[in-house]
Structure formats: structure tokens, C-alpha cells
Amino acid sequence: MVTRGSACVRRLGGGLRSQQVRFGRLLDNSKVTIERLIEGWSQQTGMAAVGRHVLAIQDTSEINFRTTSQRRRGLGEIGKGVGHGVLVHAMLALDADHGSCLGLVAGRIWTRPGRVTVAHAKRALEDKESERWVSTGMAAKTVLAEARMVTIIGDRESDFYAVWAMLPSPNFHLISRVMHDRCLSDGSSLYAAGERFAFAATKSVDVRARAPHGPARAAVLSLRFGTVALRRPKGPLQRHLPESVSLSLVEVIERNPANGAEPLHWRLLTTHDVADVAAAWQIIDWYKQRWNIEQLWRIMKLQGLRIEDSQLATAERLIKLTAIATKAAAVIFQLHQARDGDNPEPATVSFPDQEIAVLNALNTRVEGKTTLQKNPHPDHSLAWASWIIARLGGWDGYPSSRPPGPITYKHGLEHFRVILIGWSLKDLCMP
């Protein structure tokens, strides 16, 4: 799937009916379970994380497969009930020091069997979809056990009391954006506590253009921070949790936005100690890395594998195909991320040893005669491999040109796949 840059079974089978049937049988095989496929996500991640501080970013994405009222394919509702598909929850590991992608950690993929009639507050955690934020974090403790430190990062959906009460441990931290105001152990509210903190610093940041919020601009952010203690929610289903959890609140506000611009306002809770301004800005910088998992979803969907175009007939097959596509998207993301040469990872993060030899041979073919068209990256680094794949995908290689994007890598990997087939046949003796 990585080398062909597609999740289409016909393309994966090379247009051969026999290969399509074989792939279909793989997806139908009862021994090929979704649990084992997701377990395979982290096959290389744990080793890559040894001795590092890992940012473990988790998020959920909806995969909307086309259906009709006559052909639902066993898929449940997603979103607000206007579409049908599966939901993917994944955790992506990044090196905290330089942001390079180390791979996937854990996650969950499911389709909804129907609408839940029992109120959310009356269901135990294990009976709620939100349980995925806790179970994925628990799985990370096993996969990333050899990391020096782990910081789990989540968006507002991950901000609920059970996460704060159950996941933290020594060298295992959380950062999450606040979803709503909540009660503190002293009887006050979280938002009110933040307003009592004094502003400690300001910083100008570049804000990317995002419709419908307006064009790119520079925003001046004011920073304040302090310690808060969340009070356990009332109710019998919460009584097994500690009565309170002490956290750091870091808040940045754009107090004077440009005319017509929506002001930035982030409230972040974290288990990290935030003793000074530098530590507070560090929490902001780590949380900004959450954007990387949005890039993973982009590669899975319109800008890469186009998983939502799959015509497989059953939900079981689509769930397994989505698990494979998530892993493939992570590998493509690693290549895309390495394009600037700032990523120190070796090429073996994405390519097995036998393919490194093919990349060696290709490098001399795709390099130009001038210095500007030589591969500028260290041999056998991921950036070196990324440059070669981008050249195969049609990029001209000049530093002044626009950097290659996911579609360029998709085309480059397709070309590379064809070359690998030829390479495998080079030593055959013809009669």
C-alpha cells in the first residue's frame, strides 16, 4: 500500500484478478484480526523510542465511506448521522526534541452498531467511546516502556476526569486542551482561576491561513500559568477515582486581534510542573505538535491513499483495510516529514535493508550533474531516501523549488514499486 500509494484493492493487486482475490481472502481470514493489525502498528516504534522523550499524540478521525439506503455495507453512523463509515483512533509518536516521527503506537478502529439510548452520565467508562483515550494511553505505557519520558497530547475531546486520574505516572505525562469550565477542589471554577493568574510574558507567533478564519497573520499572545486542583465529578461511577488531581494550567490569549480575525485562546492542562515562563512556553510548543496527526489523516484521505473511495462490500473488510492504511499513511508521513533534512532518522525506519540497495543505485540515476541537483543529505538517512523518492515522483530537486508534497511521494513510491519488481528479477537466468 505504501509503495503503490493507494488503498484501492484493484491497484494493490496490480490489476490481476487473482491478486485481488488473494487480498480479499486475507481480509476475510478470521485469523487476521483487527487487534493483531493494530498491534503491528508499533512493531518498530518501541525500539525507535528507546531513551527519548516521546510526544505521543492521539486523535480520532471519521472515515466516511459512500453508502446508500440499500447498501450500508454494515457501517454505522458517523458525525451527526449524515454519513456512514468507521472511526479511527490512533496515537502517533514524535521525538520531543526535533519532532521526527517514530511511528504509530496504538489505537482502535470501530463502526457503531446503532444509537446508544442510555444517557452518557449513566454509563461506565468501559461502555463509552471515550474509553479509547484511556485504553490507548495504557497501551502506550507498554509500547514506549523504554522511552526516557512520554507526554501524551490530546485535543479537547480527551479532557475528562478519568484520563487525568488514571493515566499519569512517573515520567508519563499529559497535555490536553481544556474542553469546558470545571469545578476545582476549593469550590472555584477553572476559568476563574486562570483569570486570577497574572500575565507573565508575550510572544509574537505566525498564524497560518485557515478558512473561514481569515488569512495568515502575526498574532501577539499573552501568557499566564499556575497550579489548579480539579475536583472529582459527582456520581457513583466516579467514586473509585481520587477526590482531586493537581495540574498545571497554561493559558495564551490574543488580546488585540487584527480586525475581523478570530482571537486565539488556548487553555492547556498538563501534569508537567510549570515553574517559570520558559516551561510554560515549552508546553505550548509541545501542544503545537498535535497538528502532525492531522497530516496523517490528510494522507489517508484526499491527499494520498484515498481510503474513503474503497468499494469493499463489508464493514469487517473496511475496518481491516483502514488499519492497514493507517500504518501505510504513517510511513508516507515519515518520508514527507524528512524532506527538509531536519529529521535525523535512518532510512531503515521506513525501508527494509534490501530496499536500501535499490535506493543506492537509484540515487546515482536521479542526481543531476550540478551541485544543486545532488542529494544533499547523509547517505542512508531518511532524508536521503525521501529526496530520492521525491525525484522519482517528478520533483525537480532544486532547493529553490516548492518542496514535494504527499501526492509527489505517492507517485514516487508507485515508481519505486515498479523498479523493485524489476530489481527482484535481475538475477534470473532466462532459458
Explain briefly what this protein structure is.
The chain is α+β, with helices and mostly antiparallel strands and 431 residues long. It has 13 helices and ten strands.
Descriptive notes:
It is a single chain. This protein is an alpha+beta fold. It has two domains: 30-302, Transposase Inhibitor Protein From Tn5, Chain A, domain 1 (Alpha-Beta Complex), CATH 3.90.350.10; 346-424, no CATH class. The chain is 33% helix and 21% strand. Strands 1, 2, 3, 4, 5, 6, 7, 8, 9 and 10 form a ten-stranded mixed β-sheet that branches. It is globular. The two termini are 33 Å apart.
Average pLDDT figure: 88
**Given the C-alpha coordinates, what overall shape results?**
globular
Show unreliable segments: none
Q: What Rg is obtained from the alpha carbons, in whole angstroms?
A: 24 Å
CATH superfamily of the largest domain: Transposase Inhibitor Protein From Tn5, Chain A, domain 1
Number of strands: 10
How many distinct domains?
2
The CATH first-level class of the largest domain comes to Alpha Beta
CATH A-level architecture of the largest domain: Alpha-Beta Complex
Stated plainly, the CATH topology of the largest domain is called Transposase Inhibitor Protein From Tn5, Chain A, domain 1
SSE ordering: HHHHEEEEHEHEHEEEEHHHHHH
Largest sheet report: 10 strands, mixed
Distance between the termini: 33 Å
Give the percentage of residues in beta strands: 15-25%
What is the count of DSSP helices, taking H or I runs of 4+ residues?
13
Helicity level: 25-40%
